[in-house]
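Try this one yourself first.
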């Protein structure tokens, strides 16, 4: 018999909020954290907007410790600390053996890698920072979280582009369900607002055109005049526990993990397919044992690319059938940007908080309906006082990977 899994703690460091309550409040208020990029290289970019985290490592790490951590790992540790504190966890030797770290990131230590290239190729130096390898590797964040708490169970890193942290959370829950571990710290982090990364995305022509009059409104998911995504950075972390372990220590269940679906398009590296997304959503619902109408809110992948939003809308219609028209859907990327490897975890926490609060964040900057995207995207203004018993969060990635997570209401 599969064990039940509960979320008992959450943490967020993201554009618009340095903790989960602050971040969610900014979304409900419709405040966008997208704006002009104030980096030294901004003038060399065609697209000069992003969603940055206002972050100073000094309050969180001693100077030498901060110097040994890439920005994405700093984000990871701060979000994980919040989640562990929120869960009121106290680690002992037995728990450390039965706990795992499951973390997602798309590009790992991008800041460190870029600094190395600058040092060698631009400045002509013959050496890079001695810790460049352990700082830049994709599993650095998971390793640092494990070191922070002495976690001796599995420490696994998932790098599946935009689906990275959604896969990390789903795989963590499966490990708990199968009895391999009792508890997991799961999520993802990303910090790729570097000159090289932004130039690469410019080359792909997937970035939003800047709204010169209102830069914060440049990302417009599902709207007819959408033009692309806005890159962001940040981290999201969840503490997941088996029902037995949570009850034994008297933990508060914020939500129950209900279902996880994963699929591969196997068609194209960057163009999504309806079929792949449909299969992932149906798998998640089947595992949760829920019919489509049971979902009270869907946090969409909703990147604001012309093709992506159209495909996701078609997939939602295929899965939810006549219930699709009544389903509240929003893409919060309009306000916090696309957090890449951190997106799945952060947006799952948003869905969780929507369920617990009965308030659904809007799809901001929705100005002109697209006849082919004709569902209820909760345009511009949050919806309050909504009874929600189950939520879904979609993550659809370059490479064709799809990850869908479903939560249901837990027992307080």
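Now uncover the answer:
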């Amino acid at each position: 018999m599969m064990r039940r899994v509960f979320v008992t703690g959450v943490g967020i460091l993201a554009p618009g909020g340095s903790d989960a309550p602050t971040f969610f409040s900014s979304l409900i208020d419709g405040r966008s954290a997208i704006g002009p990029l104030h980096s030294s290289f901004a003038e060399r970019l065609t697209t000069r907007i992003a969603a940055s985290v206002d972050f100073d490592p000094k309050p969180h790490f001693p100077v030498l410790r901060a110097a040994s951590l890439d920005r994405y790992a700093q984000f990871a540790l701060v979000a994980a600390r919040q989640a562990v504190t929120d869960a009121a966890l106290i680690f002992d030797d037995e728990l450390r053996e039965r706990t795992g770290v499951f973390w997602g990131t798309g590009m790992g230590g991008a800041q460190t890698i870029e600094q190395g290239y600058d040092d060698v190729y631009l400045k002509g130096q013959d050496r890079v920072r001695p810790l460049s390898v352990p700082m830049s590797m994709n599993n650095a964040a998971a390793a640092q979280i494990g070191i922070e708490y002495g976690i001796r169970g599995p420490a696994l890193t998932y790098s599946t582009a935009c689906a990275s942290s959604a896969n990390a959370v789903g795989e963590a829950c499966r490990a708990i369900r199968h009895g391999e571990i009792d508890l997991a710290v799961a999520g993802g982090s990303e910090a790729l607002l570097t000159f090289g990364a932004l130039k690469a995305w410019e080359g792909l022509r997937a970035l939003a055109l800047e709204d010169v009059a209102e830069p914060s409104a440049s990302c417009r998911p599902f709207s007819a005049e959408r033009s692309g995504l806005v890159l962001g950075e940040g981290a999201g972390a969840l503490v997941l526990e088996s029902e037995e372990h949570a009850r034994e220590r008297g933990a508060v269940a914020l939500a129950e993990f209900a279902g996880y679906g994963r699929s591969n398009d196997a068609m194209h590296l960057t163009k999504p397919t309806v079929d792949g997304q449909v299969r992932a959503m149906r798998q998640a619902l089947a595992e949760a044992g829920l019919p489509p109408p049971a979902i009270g809110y869907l946090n969409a992948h909703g990147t604001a690319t012309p093709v992506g939003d159209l495909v996701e809308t078609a997939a939602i219609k295929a899965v939810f059938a006549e219930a699709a028209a009544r389903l509240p859907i929003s893409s919060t990327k309009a306000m916090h940007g696309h957090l890449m490897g951190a997106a799945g975890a952060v947006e799952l926490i948003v869905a969780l908080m929507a369920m617990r609060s009965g308030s659904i964040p809007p799809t901001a900057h929705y100005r002109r309906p697209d006849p082919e995207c004709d569902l209820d995207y909760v345009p511009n203004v949050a919806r309050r006082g909504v009874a929600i018993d189950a939520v879904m969060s979609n993550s659809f990635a370059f490479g064709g990977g799809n990850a869908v997570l479903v939560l249901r209401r837990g027992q307080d």
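Discussion: The longest helix spans residues 71-86. DSSP finds 14 helices and twelve strands in the chain.
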